Amino acid sequence: MFGSDLLNYRIRCLYAAIDAVVQTDLSQFKPKFIVSSKGFGIYQDFRGDMSDAQMANAAIGVVNAIAALRDNLTSWARKHNRPVTLVDQKFRNSPALKVVMDLCNLWKHGELTRSWTQRYPRVQDLGRVLRCTAQPGVSAGFALGLGGVRRDFGSNEVVITGTVIDSVGNVMGDLYDFELEAVRHWENLLVQFGLPIK
To answer: Where are the beta strands (DSSP E) in the chain?
Structure first.
């Protein structure tokens, strides 16, 4: 694979990495029952059978893949006489790409001695959560029964994500949202280079 085919393939790989941290079949998550002399309850945990280490590994894999594309794009631009400055501009103008790069460097080095965002981000509360989304004026939700999720409507998916916070604990955003936005920015750069998106 060469040229634009390789870059399009890398973008598809990034979306595949993001898709790998998403589960849309809610029937895979069985509820836990709590029974006592005072009554009973249902507890729904979306962790499934994943350990903390497995969830962290999946999240790190997505972040690293997104961050690594910067060097690939720079190299491609040089080889194909495209302005390398476009890669740098896209990166510097994208808060999501800078957050992803900071997180990649944090996981790679164990600490950040400098920060692209100037906020030294980190992820807290990494886990699998249910995200219910819908278009304006449309509902989203699910019905939980003794056998688990019986039916759902709208867009419901379980994602591996966490809260991105800065060095003083201020919330910067959601890891999954930053990942999606960062890939869209790289994809947009291909358009700026005049490459067809496949």
So the answer is: 22-23, 32-36, 39-43, 122-133, 141-145, 148-153, 155-165, 171-174
pTM of the model: 0.89
| DSSP type of residue 37 | T
10-residue stretch averages of pLDDT, the chain, 198 residues long: 78 95 87 85 85 96 97 93 96 98 97 97 96 83 68 83 98 98 96 86
- Helices assigned H by DSSP within 20-155: 52-79, 84-92, 95-109
Instruction: Name the residue type at position 125.
Output: D
Distance CA 130, CA 156 (A): 7
- Beta-strand relationship, 155-165 and 22-23: antiparallel
Backbone angles phi, psi at 160, to 5 degrees: -85, 120
- Nearest CA to 44 out of 142, 184, 189 is that of 142
